[in-house]
Design a protein that fits this description.
With 102 residues, the chain is mainly beta. It has one domain. Helices cover 8% and strands 57% of the residues. The strands form 2 sheets. The protein has a 5-stranded antiparallel β-sheet. It has a 3-stranded antiparallel β-sheet with strand order 6-7-8, with no helix packed on it. It is globular, with a radius of gyration of 13 Å.
Length: 102
Amino acid sequence: MAHFSYSPEGDALAVFKKSEKVDYIVELFEDYFIDIGKNGKIVGLEILNASSALDLKKSDLKNIKKAELYTSEAKGGRNVFFILKVNEKEIKSQIRVPAFSA
């Protein structure tokens, strides 16, 4: 299970592995950022303007019960999967991250 935080004032959602230290942040595309830890490992995801990006109400994002964050290797990059448990719904999303170097 991942940790998460949501700021309704900034409409910013962060899903992260709490035990992992962030070495640097990479902007994937507008409003999407990934946190990179030791050895280039993806340890977190930040989404600005999260309500519109995820097509959810701010009130729903304030009621996240659980978050999960997974990554997998893929040809030419990585896949980032995140799952949010909001009220009784489960929202699943996947983001393709191209290969990058530090």
